């Protein structure tokens, strides 16, 4: 059965290899958003750290204030990163999920890692501050302590994009299924997981976790990722992906920078939820 076009949303996930030059990162991201929009995407998602990957001191220095978001979205923020997000969404008439950028917090040494949703009018519709912070020592010798350089958020965030509801998360959040169940109970049909997964965890867990979150919540999952070598010896896994409510991979980016595009069919999602009504059978909240 062909999908009803008025219940289909074309979406894209952008894959980047961000470095420490904010201007260059935004330029490359902008070109890929443009290409995705020209290919028909009305919802485009950028990965975590899309604007900057590098030294923590430099990240603290470029952290931008955001202020209140929501009604009107005119929060007065004028930093280059937020301005890029707003201008890009408006230029191409799309909803743009800006995966994660350093937002000033009350602790100058620990900005938030914040994902923004901008609407086609260029207003900031929603901001999600990453709740779960990645503190780990990996077998390959990589040590990451996100909590030393980032403040955690404490709010679960959903927002409307047309007739659909989108739930916002970032990277390490994907290991905490209770967050995704809450977003689904708030009406989410799509969940974004912008990421910068390391290679060791990515090769074993990336697809498994994303498909599990899609299957158990019967949602579309958009997971744009970083791919390649970054400053300080960090290497990310890539494989930016779009997954449907049955857990099938609809599209996946290849090696290097680029984007993957897929059609999100909400009528199909309704059929999945009707045929396997597990969301109606939840007994433990």
Describe, in plain words, how this protein is organized in 3D.
This protein has helices spanning 22-38, 56-62, 80-92, 177-185, 199-217, 266-275, and strands at residues 8-15, 43-45, 95-103, 112-118, 124-129, 135-137, 143-145, 157-161, 164-168, 190-192, 220-223, 227-229, 235-237, 241-243, 249-252, 258-265. With 285 residues, it is α/β, with parallel strands linked by helices. Strands 5-4-3-2-1-16 form a six-stranded mixed sheet. Strands 8-9-10-11-14-15 form a six-stranded mixed sheet, with helices on one face. Helix 1 packs parallel to helix 3 (80-92). The radius of gyration is 18 Å and the shape is globular. The mean pLDDT is 94.
Summary, kept brief:
The chain is 26% helix and 27% strand. With 285 residues, the protein is an alpha/beta fold.
Over all CA atoms, what is the radius of gyration? 18 Å
What proportion of the residues is helical, as a percent range?
25-40%
Structural class: alpha/beta
Shape: globular
Biggest sheet overview: 6 strands, mixed
Strand order of the largest sheet: 5-4-3-2-1-16
H-E string? EHEHHEEEEEEEHEHEEEEEEH
SS summary, helix count = 6
Query: Could you list the spans in which at least 5 consecutive residues all have pLDDT below 50?
Result: none
């Amino acid at each position: 059965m062909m999908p009803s076009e008025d219940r289909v949303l074309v979406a894209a996930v952008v894959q980047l290899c961000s470095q420490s030059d904010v201007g260059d990162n935004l330029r490359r991201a902008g070109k890929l958003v443009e290409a995705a929009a020209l290919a028909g995407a009305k919802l485009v998602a950028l990965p975590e750290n899309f604007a900057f990957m590098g030294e923590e001191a430099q990240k603290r220095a470029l952290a931008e204030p955001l202020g209140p978001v929501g009604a009107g979205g005119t929060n007065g923020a004028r930093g280059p990163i937020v301005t890029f997000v707003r201008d890009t969404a408006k230029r191409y008439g799309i909803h743009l999920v800006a995966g994660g950028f350093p937002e000033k917090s009350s602790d100058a040494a620990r900005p938030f890692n914040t994902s923004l949703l901008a609407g086609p009018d260029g207003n900031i519709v929603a901001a999600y501050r990453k709740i779960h912070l990645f503190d780990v020592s990996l077998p390959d010798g990589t040590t990451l302590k996100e909590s030393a350089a980032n403040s955690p958020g404490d709010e679960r965030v959903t927002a409307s994009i047309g007739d659909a509801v989108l739930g916002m998360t970032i990277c390490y959040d994907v290991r905490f299924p209770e967050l995704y169940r809450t977003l689904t109970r708030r009406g989410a049909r799509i969940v974004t997981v912008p990421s910068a997964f390391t290679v060791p965890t990515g090769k074993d867990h990336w697809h498994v976790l994303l498909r599990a979150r899609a299957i158990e919540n019967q949602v579309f999952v958009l997971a744009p990722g970083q791919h390649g070598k970054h400053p300080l010896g960090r290497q990310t896994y890539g494989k930016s992906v779009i997954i449907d409510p049955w857990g099938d991979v609809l599209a996946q980016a290849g090696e290097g920078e680029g984007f993957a595009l897929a059609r999100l069919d909400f009528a199909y999602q309704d059929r999945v939820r009707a045929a396997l009504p597990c969301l109606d059978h939840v007994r433990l909240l």
